[in-house]
Amino acid sequence: MRFISYAQNNEDVLLWRALGEVQNGFYIDVGANDPVEHSVTKAFYDAGWHGINIEPLPLHIAAFDEQRPRDLNLAIAAGSADGELTLYDVPAVRGWASPEAAVAALHRAEGHEVTELRVPVRTLASVCAEHVEGEIHFLKIDVEGFEGEVLRGMDFARWRPWVLVIEATLPGRRETNYAVWEELVTGQRYRYAWFDGLNRYYVAEEHAGLLAQFDVQPNVFDDFIPHHLDSAWRQIDALQQNVGRMDHELQRHVSRIDVLEAQTAEGWARAADMERNALTHQALHQDAVRQSEMLAQQSEVLAQRSEMLAQQLEQLRSSKDAMEAQLRLEKQTMEAQLRLEKQAMEAQLLLEKQAMEAQLHLEKQTIEARLHQSAAWGKEMEQRLLAVLASNSWRITAPLRFVLQRGPHSMANIGRSKAKGAARRGLRWLTSRESVRSTVLPLVMRSPQLQALTSRTLAAVKQATAENVAQASDVPHALRELPQSAREALQQLRHAYAPHEE
């Protein structure tokens, strides 16, 4: 169903886009002013919502009491502390009442009459403590320059409206004034969402998912019409029904005129007969003349009524033509506005696409930098592991690790592999010490038996290295930045400290 907007600047369209799926929601309207005209809450009330309307002017709050029986309507002003204040009203302009003396002085300087009255003041925190039990889905504040005082009287730590709508310009001007109070909102974990030229919108951090609903202004995709246009269309429908009824009434009167004309003709015939018998029926002739006069008078009256009805019908047709011309003009205006909004939206989407491409480029550079950091970390880990393998403590505990890895059931095989393992370890130790290598290798070269043993040991070491390389595909993803030598050293550490298997 098409949404009908009552708000001055389509505020209710944006709020409905974000909160329309909420059933039986709750709102607070500070500076409610009127239950229909420029009302941000009227559409929500019609959809089954209810809430609190705060309006200090007695005449205005009386309209809320009459039209909003489900709402709580308070004839007070909201401020930073309970008490009283002077309200400056401009009777000629509805909605310009303000507690700010500077605003009143500005209105007087522009030639407007300003009246003063004393009204009670309560903080929003005290109102919520007395009347609010569940969620507050949105809070709207429009108090003509007094927004900062209203915000100081609210406890946002205890009550967390999902969305805030706060007037952010000077009364009747485009100049903004939100800098003096915005910290009172953003400092309470609310994020800025949108500025519509009159109001600023904020979303509570715990409902940050609603921010996406405030990306663009109200547009054709929101499927809404102003309530004035809806009212005009309803009036046209009523006029068309009226015209139909008038046509029916006119036809009925025309039929009656035809009957009367037939009766008149019959009367004239009867009068003629009476005149022919006038010599013998003088009395009857006089009576016929009187009846003929009466019928003529009735015919004249009916003719006048017929003419009057024809004039009314012509007026109704003229009214209908004027209304249809006005609707065509409004339709052309709305189509032109929608074309402009579409062009603006396409330009904004292009800017967002360019910003996203720039962000993706930056993220790519960041990932490449992280990959370089991972490679540097792998090299550093390799150096540390090699230092552990080269340490005296690692070599000294080698026999103990060997025993723990093998377990008690494999002790019978130790004798057969002890000589081979000792040879390999000795060879590793010799090749890792430059001073020992330069002394021992000449001695090995003098003995053919030692040369053969060294060759066999080197071949066994190469075979073990090839097996380790074949298992490289099983290396976890987090360790693939490490060099092969570092992964082998880390595998040895794990085997050394692995739990003993029975």
User: Uncertain spans, ≥5 residues at pLDDT below 50?
Assistant: 408-412
CATH topology of the largest domain: Rossmann fold
Element pattern in H and E: EHEHEHEEEHEHEHEHEEEHHHHHHHH
The dominant shape is: elongated
The figure for the number of domains is 3
What's the gyration radius in Å? 48 Å
Instruction: Compute the number of helices.
Output: 15
Mean pLDDT figure: 80
The helix-and-strand class reads: alpha/beta
Helicity, as a percent range: 55-70%
> What's the level 1 CATH class of the largest domain?
Alpha Beta
Largest sheet, in brief, is: 7 strands, mixed
Distance between the termini: 74 Å
Oligomer: single chain
The neighbouring-strand order within the major sheet is 4-3-2-8-9-11-10
The share of residues in extended strands comes to 5-15%
Query: What is the tally of beta strands?
Result: 12
Instruction: Please identify, by name, the CATH architecture of the largest domain.
Output: 3-Layer(aba) Sandwich
Assign the CATH superfamily of the largest domain. Answer: Vaccinia Virus protein VP39
